[in-house]
Amino acid sequence: MTDRFRSGAGRLCLDFIRTLRYRGTPSESEEFPDAAAWGAWIDQFGPFPAPAQPASVDEARALREAVHSLLTGEVRDPVRRRLNRFAALPVPAPSLTSSGELRWQASDPASAMLALLARDALDLVTSPEFGRVRRCAGPRCGALFLDTSRPGTRRWCSMEICGNQAKKSTYRAKATAS
């Protein structure tokens, strides 16, 4: 099974904000057109054993934009209040099954996921890792990612996609100039 949504940005909150794909470019596209898509994202990234069935996608989109504002330094009082409100929601609770497996449960998985995402964003922005959050150098991308490379010089959110496209463009430009 192929994952529906992109991962690998380095933190859960960074993968979450990538659901507005190609943010700020002419190719911008919404990966949460409806509650079913939000539920699919929770199923892919969340800790819950059963599929999530959120009633609405509105709160997810509102949190996504608040997290993006926080990470890009555009925090105003309404954004701060929204983040704090989501972070205060109940988080999933661990429980041990009779067979010794750890399961995560929540009466409302969508709200619990919002709490996890808000808490992850607040943790990131107040940690030393925040200095390593980068914007992808791909001209059509716009994604944020956590640079975990040793020298801290990573340029692309994905070497396989954005990095490869940049290298192809450079190669073509050199070949054309020759």
Automatic annotation (TrEMBL):
It comes from the Bacteria. InterPro entries: ABATE, ABATE_dom_sf, Znf_CGNR. It holds the Pfam family zf-CGNR. Residues 132-174 form the Zinc finger CGNR domain. PANTHER family: BLL6575 PROTEIN. This is Zinc finger CGNR domain-containing protein. It comes from Amycolatopsis vastitatis.
